[in-house]
Amino acid sequence: MTMQQRTNSPSRTGRLSRRGFxxxxxxxxxxxxxxxxxxLPVRAVAQAAVKEVNAWVVIQPDDTVIIRxxxxxxxxxxxxxxxQLVAEELECDWDKVRFELVEPGENRRRDRVWRDQxxxxxxxxxxxxxxxxxxxxAARSMLVQAAAQGWGVPAGQCTVAKxxxxxQASGRSTTYGAVAEVANGIAPPTGITLKDPKDWTIAGQxxxxxxxxxxxxxxxxxxxxIAMPGMLVAIPKACPVHGGKxxxxxxxxxxxxxxxxxxxxxxxxxxxxxxxxxxxxKTALDALPIEWDNGPNANVxxxxxxxxxxEGLSAETEYVGNRAGDAxxxxxxxxxxxxxxxxxxxxxxxxxxxxxxxxxxxxERCEMWGPTQVAEAALTALATAAGLPVENCExxxxxxxxxxxxxxxxxxxTMATLIAKQVPGTPVKMMWTRxxxxxxxxxxxxxxxxxxxxxxxxxxxxxxxxxxxxxxxMAYMRPSIMTANGDPVTFQGLMPDGAEMxxxxxxxxxLIDHAMxxxxxxxxxxxxxxxxxxxxxxxxxxxxxxxxxxxDPLVFRRxxxxxxxxxxxxxxxxxxxxxxxxxxxxxxxxxxxxxxxGFGSYVAAAAxxxxxxxxxxIHRIVAATDPGYVVNPQQxxxxxAGSFVYGLSAxxxxxxxxxxxxxxxxxxxxxxxxxxDEMPVVEVITVPSGGFWGGVGEPTIAVAxxxxxxxxxxxxxxxxxxxxxxxxxxxTS
Amino acid sequence: xAKLNINGKVVEVDVEEDTPLLWVIREHVxxxxxxxxxxxxxxxxxxxHLDGVATRSCALPLSAVTEENRIVTIEGLGAETPHPVQxxxxxxxxxxxxxxxxxMIMAASSLLAQNPSPSDDDIRAxxxxxxxxxxxxxxxxxxxxxAERMTNRG
Lengths: 733, 154
What we know:
Chain B: This is (2Fe-2S)-binding protein. The complex is a heterodimer. Chain A is α+β, with helices and mostly antiparallel strands. Chain A folds into 3 domains: 3-7 and 17-214, Aldehyde Oxidoreductase, domain 4 (2-Layer Sandwich), CATH 3.30.365.10; 226-296 and 355-431, Aldehyde oxidase/xanthine dehydrogenase, molybdopterin binding domain (Aldehyde Oxidoreductase, domain 4); 314-347 and 443-727, Aldehyde oxidase/xanthine dehydrogenase, molybdopterin binding domain (Aldehyde Oxidoreductase, domain 4, 2-Layer Sandwich), CATH 3.30.365.10. Chain A is 30% helix and 22% strand. In chain A, helix 5 packs parallel to helix 7 and helix 20 crosses helix 21 (701-716). The model of chain A is unreliable at 1-47 (pLDDT under 50). Chain B is of the alpha+beta class. Chain B folds into 2 domains: 2-75, Ubiquitin-like (UB roll) (Roll), CATH 3.10.20; 84-153, DNA polymerase, domain 1 (Orthogonal Bundle). Helix content of chain B is 39%, strand content 14%. The chains are: A alpha+beta, B alpha+beta. The interface between A and B is large, with 79 and 66 residues.
C-alpha cells in the first residue's frame, strides 16, 4: 500500500509556501483571490479551456485530473470521498487528482448532468456514489477507446494503470492527458459494470483530503473573505422576535457616520446598514434607533413553550409513527409500569463561519458568491429575489466554514439579494454578526417525550408507549412533505422498518406517536435532525427499563434485538470495544451504552465517565458504525470523533432559551460548546457489512448523549431527563 | 493614521482607533486568513501573534497596538517555509471545514514557542479555541507531533 508514502511525499506537504502570503497580499489589493497553489484554482481550471472527457472528468495535457464535485463541502470530507469514487473507476493516478466545484447555473444549462446538488441528510456520498462511479468508468472507457483508435487496435486489447494506457502486443503506451481531447468526441459506453468494492484500490483507502493546504496558510477564501473592487459590506438586523415586523428606523441618526453608505429596509422585518467595512457598518447598526412590532409572540417564553408541549404529552390527537400490538391496553393491564418524561431544548447550529453572501445585482444580471448546502435552491432564491430570469443568474459556490444543516435554507440568499438590488452595480457582501446568527438561526426543534413501559413476569419489555410532543421541522421548512396527519420525519430512528431510520427493538406492544406543537421559533435541520432527541428518549428509557428489570443494559437490549442483527452487531462491537463484559472499568469510572439507526447507517457508542464532587468527566468513548461501505476510513474516523464534539456540546451546554419572544443566547459566552480540555478519547470501530450505502456525518451524534447519560446514571444513580447537563446538579445522589 | 508592524512590514492605516485589530487586519490591510468567529474573544478564530504571544484580535482595539508591537498573522507564520505546526497539520489531515484552523495553528505555534514540550494537560488547558467540526483529537495529536519535531530539530 503506497498511500502512506504518497501522502507524506514532499510534493504534497511542501506546497505550503510564500505564495500563501502573496495570495493574501492580492486580496489586500482588492483582487478576487481564490485558492493559490493547491488545489488548482477553480477559475483557472475553467479558463484553461481544456475539453472535458465527460461531466465528471477533465484531464489536462500534463495528466492533471480534475474531478468535478457537485455536492457542497463544509468540512465533512465528502469532496475527497466522491473524488476517490470517480478516480477508482477512472483508474487514474490519485496523486494527480484535483477538484473543481460545480456551479448550479451550469448544472441547469446542462440539463442537470450533475443531478442533485443538495447536501444534507448525510447523503453526499450515498446519494451519488453510483452515478459518480459510472461517470469515472465511462471516462475511462472513452479514454481507452481514444488511444485504441489512434493505434488502430481494439480497445479490448488495451490496459490501464494509473492513467497510462498500454497496448501490450505492440509495446505502445500513452497517457490520459495525451488522448483526453480525442476522448471528448467519443460516444459514452453503455452497459458499464462497476467494480466490486472489494477490488477498490483508491476508494476504501485513507486518502488525505484534496482540499487541505489552503486551509492551513489562510489562503482559502471562504464567503466571509470575499473581496472585490468597490465592494460594500451590509449588516442586517431582523426583528428579534421571529415573525415580528420592522416598524421604523431613524436612518438620519447614523447616515453621517464614517463609511456609512446606505441604511435600508430589506423586507418586512429587516433593516440593514451598508458601509465600506464591517466594523463601520456594525458601529452604525448598533447606534441605529429601530422600532419593532414584535407581534403576537412577544410574551412567549421557554416556560410557556414547555407548557404548550406538556399539554401534548397527554393530548388525545396523535399521529402514529410505529404501532404493534396494543400498547395502551397492555400498559393498562400491567402492574409493572415505569413512566418518565424527557425534554430536548432548542440548539443553534453555531457554525464557525456565520451566515454571509456576496451579491452583485444589475438590471440585467445577478450573481452570488458564498456558502450554501443547496446550490440549486440558492440559485432559484437568487433569481426570484433579483426579479430576473434564472438564466441571467449564477451562484458561485464556496467551500463552507462549517454548516451542520444551517445553510439548507436560502432565506439569507434572498436577504442579500434584496439588499444588493438597492445598490445596483455594486457588489455587496452581507455578513451577519455572531449575535444575529445566534438569534436568527434555524433551531434544532424543541420536544418533550413521555415514555411508559411495562415488564412481563420474566422482566421483558412487553409494552412501550412513546409520546413525542413538540415541534415539526418540516411543517416550517418543507411543508410539501407533510402528510395529512403530520410530519413523518419526526420518527427518525423509530420507524417500524426500512433502509433509513428503523428502530432496533422488537417490542410486542408498541406505540410511538407525535403531538405536533409548533412554537414560533423557526426550526431547521440541525446535524442529526430528529434522530438526536429520539435516541436520547428511547436509549435512556430502555436503560431505565433494564434497571427496573434489574438486568444488565446490554443483556436487556440483546433480548429485544434478535430480529435486528445489524443494529445488534454495532452495539456488540461497541460493548466489546469498551470491555463491557470482559474488563472492569478503572476505579470510580462507570459505563453506558446506546445504539440507533439513522441516515441509512447503524451506530452505537459505549462511554466511560466519572462524576466527582458533581463534576462530570468523560474519559473514553468507543463508537461502532456500519455504513455498509467505507470510502475513506480516516475521514470516517474524523466524522465520528467530531460527532461526539457536536453531540456532547449539545448534551453538556446546548440550550437556546426564549424570553419575551426572542432567543436569549447571543454568543459563545452564553452558548458554550465543548473545547479541547473536555474532549474524551474516542475509539472508532467501523464494521462495514456491505450491500447498502449509509451516511456517516450525522448518525453517530445521536448516540453521544444517551451513552454518556446512561453512564452518568451508573455513576450517580441520577437520571438526567432534560438537557443540557449544565442545568443539573450531579453533586448529591 | 496609525502604523502597524504586520508580518515584518510597517503598514499605515486610516482607521478609527476603536476598530478591533481583527478588522484592521482583514479589511484595511487585506489579510483575510485571520477569521471572525465571535467578536468577543471566545472562539479564537481571530488569533494572531502579538510580540510572539497568541492574542485574540477581535476584542483588541487598534488603540492598544503600536508600531513597536510585532504582529504576525497566519500569512506571516510560514512565510519562508511552512511552520512545523502547518506541516504536521497537513500530515495528520487535522482540518475539517478549516475555518477555525488558522486560529488553532496560531495558538499552537505560540504555545510551542513558550513551552517546547507541553504535556497533554498543558495542551488541553492552553488551546481553548472552538472547533465545531470537532477536530480536537487531531489538534492534540498535532501539537504533540509538532513539539517532537521541533525539539528534535533544535
